[in-house]
Amino acid sequence: MKPPLKPSIPTTGRRKRKIVVIMGATGAGKSRLSIDLATRFFKNSEIINSDKMQVYTGLDITTNKITMQERFNVPHHLLGVIDPTKAVFAPSDYRKLASDIISEVVSRNGLPLIVGGSNSLIYSLVTKRFDPDLDVFNRPDPDPNPVSVSSELCYDCCFIWVDVRLPVLNRYLTKRVDEMLDSGMFEELVEFFWTGEHKKVNRSGLGQAIGIPEFEAYFEKFSGFPRLEDASSKEMYNEAVRWIKENTCQLAKKQVSKIVRLRDAGWELKRLDATEAFRAVVTPEYREGTMAEIWDKHVVEPSVKIINQFLDE
Ligand code: ATP
C-alpha cells in the first residue's frame, strides 16, 4: 500500500526567510563555530549577535565579546552598539532591530547567522506571535500561571545547538574566567568603577553583567589590585573571583535548561556534542591542534552538512 501523501504546505504568503541560529550555553564555542562557518564554508554569512549583554557598548572583556582580530572581517551586527546608560535593551527591541538586519542581509544575498546565548532574544525574534509582556523563561517557582513556549515561527530556522556536558563546561568556564582576568578584565572593571561609569549604566541592563555585582563591594573599599601586605583585600578579591566563576557556571546551566524547554516545545534543534573538544582544552597537556581536530570533526563538519541540507530544502 502506498504511504499517505504528506499534507501540502500552505501556499499562502511568501516563503519564510531562511536563517541559521547558533545556540548554546556561555562558553560552548558559538562564536568560534560561527567564524569557522563564515570564513570556510558560507562566505556570504553575516553574524547577528544574540547575547543580551554584548549588545551594549563597553566592558568588552567582561562580557566576553569576540575581538576584532577574531572576527576575521566577518560582518557582525548588534554587537557593542547599544548605549548602556539608556533604557534596558528589551527582547521587543531586539525583535525589531534584528529582523530589520535580517531583511538587509537577505537583500544582499547573505546568510544571517544568529549567534548568542540569550534565549529570550532568540525567542522574541523567531516566534510568530511574540508577546513583549510575557517572559516565558523567567517564571516564578511555583508558577501560578504556567505559560507554554510557542513553536510557531516566523522564519525558516536551522537551529544548531552546541552542547558541552556541564561538568566539562564548568571546568572550562572556571579556566576561562582566569584567562579573562589575565587579559585585562579586572583593569577594565577598575576603570569602570573609578570613572563612575557603574553609576551611569542602567542597573537592569549592562549593570548586571557578571563581574560587576561580584566586584562592587571590593571596589567600595579598594582602588586596584590587592596589595600583598593587605590580606583582607586579597581575601575580598579572591571571593569576588570565586563568585564570578560560580555565577558563570550557573548562567550556563540556566541557559541549557531554557534550550531544553524550547526543544521540548517542539523546536527542531540539531544538537552537536562538543564535549570531547572541550575535554581536550581542560586537560593539563592541552594542545590547540588536538582541540581543533576534534572540534572540526564533532562540530564544524556536522554543522556544514546540516546547513547545506537546510539551504537545499
Ligand atoms: P535570557 O534569560 O534573557 O535568555 P541569558 O540566559 O543570557 O538571558 P540571564 O539568565 O538573564 O541570561 O542572566 C544571568 C546573569 O548572567 C545575569 O546577571 C546576566 O546579566 C548575566 N550575563 C548574561 N550574559 C552575560 C555576558 N555575556 N557577560 C556577562 N554577564 C552576562
Automatic annotation (TrEMBL):
Protein name: Adenylate isopentenyltransferase
Coiled coil: none
Pfam families listed in its UniProt record: IPPT (PF01715)
The organism of origin for this protein: Tagetes erecta
Membrane-spanning residues: none
Domain of life: Eukaryota
Cytoplasm listed as a keyword: no
Alphabetical keyword list: ATP-binding, Cytokinin biosynthesis, Nucleotide-binding, Transferase
Record-level GO BP terms: cytokinin biosynthetic process; tRNA modification
Family: Belongs to the IPP transferase family.
GO cellular component: mitochondrion
SUPFAM superfamilies: P-loop containing nucleoside triphosphate hydrolases
Claim: Secreted is one of the keywords in the record: no
A GO term, aspect molecular function: AMP dimethylallyltransferase activity
InterPro entries: Dimethylallyltransferase, P-loop_NTPase
